[in-house]
Amino acid sequence: MTVSVSWYLILGAILFTIGVVGLLVRRNVLIMLMCIELMLNASNLTFVSFARQHQDVGGQADVFFVLVVAAAEVVVGLAIIVSIFRKRLGATADDLSSMKG
Amino acid sequence: MIGASFPDELTFFLAATICVIGALGVVLTKHPVRAALSLVMTLFGVAVLFVEQQADFLAAVQVIVYAGAIVVLFLFVIMLLGVDKVEAMAKEPLVGQRIAALLAGLAVLVLIGVFGWGHWYSGSMSVVGSTSSGSAGIRALAEVTFTTYLLPFEVTSILLIIAVMGAVVLVRRGGGGGPGAIDKASLSGEELEHEEAQ
Which class does domain B1-88 fall in? Predict the structure, then answer.
């Protein structure tokens, strides 16, 4: 008998919230991407918890797809960051102000 | 305490503590490399919680793909760009940003709580297929992935190919007006002008 699902959901909510706050507070674009990973992981944990609660393996299959989308997102995001920061020195979101009116 | 056996409780609370400490580390550390390593800590904690919930295969994939590939990619880019310098956290460029962010985070937490309060879960049981532990669980996951979710699975492969090609096109130095040059123009006009000036 493992720990009840609601504890896992509370943990998932806490991790997601930490990710949201980090995404809003931090200015380094790389760390903002890491915070997105944190939020995706929180949702993955919730998916697996619901899969256990419902005895339904579909939730675990969803985690599989979230994982793939996360990988694709990181690859494209890091490529954009690399191509932008080749010419610039800073790595914070404030340095990306060339479209400022 | 909460209706589970002692080893399960111990595992859960240990892994949960590791997860939360790692997540706080990502948000609070100044150094990007330390943030990436804190992210690994959280990912391992989540993998432990996957094992605890009979998702063995996903735990393995979590460690291999996330900790093994994605975090290494992060570290690689940190080193490549040479941005592993400490972020100036003392000054706050946008006044009131942190307060606003904390309030937004609190609002998210409250919203999740409100949604979950009445019913932690609802819906019917075992629609797609039932879970089980050990190798039977992996078999069930494979059957679902290759039958019910076959189309999404194939679309996933297309997505990965597009992502890889996009990364190659974005990062390569556009030589002689190929697709790389077009991408640079769409990325930033300023950058292109700089290049033309040279």
Answer: mainly alpha
Paired tokens of B63: 């460690």
CB contact under 8 A, A80 and B187: yes
User: How does pLDDT run along chain B (198 residues), one tens digit per residue?
Assistant: 456 688 888 999 999 999 999 999 999 988 889 999 999 999 999 999 999 988 889 999 999 988 888 999 999 988 888 765 666 666 667 777 888 888 888 888 888 877 777 666 667 777 777 777 777 888 888 888 899 999 999 999 999 999 999 999 988 876 444 444 444 444 544 444 444 444
Instruction: Give the relative orientation of helices B71-81 and B32-52 as an angle to the nearest 10 degrees.
Output: 180
Q: What residue in A sits closest to B46 (Cα-Cα)? A: A45
When divided into structural domains, chain A yields a total of: 1
Which residues in chain B have their CB less than 8 angstroms from residue A14's CB? Answer: 20, 23, 109
Is A98 within the bounds of a domain? no
Contact B55 A60 (CB under 8 A): yes
- Sorted by where each begins, the domain ranges of chain B are 1-88, 149-198
Chain A residue numbers with beta carbons less than 8 Å from the beta carbon of B23 are: 14-15, 18-19, 22, 38
CATH number, domain of A23, equals 1.10.287.3510
| Angle, vertex CA A40, rays to CA B172 and CA B155, nearest 5 | 60
Range of the domain at A69: 5-90
